[in-house]
Please model this.
Amino acid sequence: MQMMVRELLALWRELGATWGEVAETIRLAESCNLRFTSAAFPFSGRGDR
Model:
């Protein structure tokens, strides 16, 4: 599971998310104990970069 999450985060980064956005998303997910869902990754749909 960790490998899949790492790969998805790397892909998200390649699509334009900043490292700050990635780190903030991880921090929020850990603090809220969220499952890996699109709701936990609010920046993933941006196409403006």
Remarks:
- The mean pLDDT is 72.
- The two ends are 29 Å apart (CA to CA).
- The chain is about 55% helix and 0% strand.
